């Protein structure tokens, strides 16, 4: 499976990559279900398991539960908010006639989960732990990614089309 945003394979243990890929699929599937609030609870749980798995892959002891819960809930909330925003935008530009809201929500949720995993892996690869992880790690990640054009409109659109297998349909 290709990564939505490339996880640095040289510094990321294979066990972490496997956990991340599994988590992205689970989050995408759960968020595509039209059951309000269940997606938030399930995404928080999946993100929590993913963080614990990544920490273990980097050789960290079991992280503090409260910190994991905060990070997982924040990640799930960002994912849910972004999905709603993008769904609204697809309706305004008429793309919702091609894509269902649930497909868009699933793709966005997987995308945000991948970003969260990259922030965590980057932090661990630099010697950090879950206890010293903070909002500045996300800001630093976004800043460094922006210079590499990972978050350009065309890069995100190409990635979403590829992940949704729509590039052939729309071509």
Can you walk me through this structure?
- It is built from seven helices and no strands.
- By secondary structure, it is mainly α.
Uncertain parts: 1-10, 166-171
Could you tell me the radius of gyration in angstroms?
A: 16 Å
Q: Indicate the multimeric state.
A: single chain
Let me know the average pLDDT: 77
- The number of E-state strands comes to 0
Helix-and-strand structural type? mainly alpha
Summarize the main sheet.
none
Q: Ends: how far apart?
A: 22 Å
Count of runs of 4 or more consecutive helical residues? 7
**Rough outline:** globular
Helix content: over 70%
Roughly what fraction of the amino acids lie in strands?
A: under 5%
Order of helices and strands: HHHHHHH
Give the SSE map.
Layout: H1 14-31, H2 38-57, H3 65-93, H4 101-125, H5 135-147, H6 153-163, H7 167-170
Helix pairs in contact: 1-2, 1-4, 2-3, 2-4, 3-4
Question: What attributes characterize this protein structure?
Answer:
0% strand, 171 residues, disordered C terminus
Condensed summary:
This protein has 171 residues and is mainly alpha-helical.
């Amino acid at each position: 499976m290709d990564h939505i945003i490339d996880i640095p394979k040289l510094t990321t243990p294979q066990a972490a990559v496997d956990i991340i890929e599994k988590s992205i699929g689970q989050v995408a599937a759960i968020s595509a279900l039209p059951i309000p609030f269940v997606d938030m609870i399930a995404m928080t749980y999946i993100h929590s398991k993913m963080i614990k798995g990544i920490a273990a892959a980097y050789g960290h002891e079991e992280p503090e539960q409260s910190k994991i819960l905060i990070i997982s809930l924040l990640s799930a909330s960002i994912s849910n908010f972004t999905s709603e925003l993008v769904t609204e935008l697809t309706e305004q530009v008429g793309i919702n006639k091609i894509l269902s809201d649930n497909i868009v929500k699933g793709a966005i949720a997987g995308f945000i989960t991948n970003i969260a995993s990259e922030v965590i892996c980057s932090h661990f690869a630099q010697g950090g732990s879950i206890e010293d992880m903070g909002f500045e790690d996300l800001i630093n990640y976004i800043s460094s990614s922006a210079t590499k054009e990972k978050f350009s409109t065309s890069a995100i659109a190409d990635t979403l089309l590829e992940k949704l297998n729509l590039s052939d349909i729309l071509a």
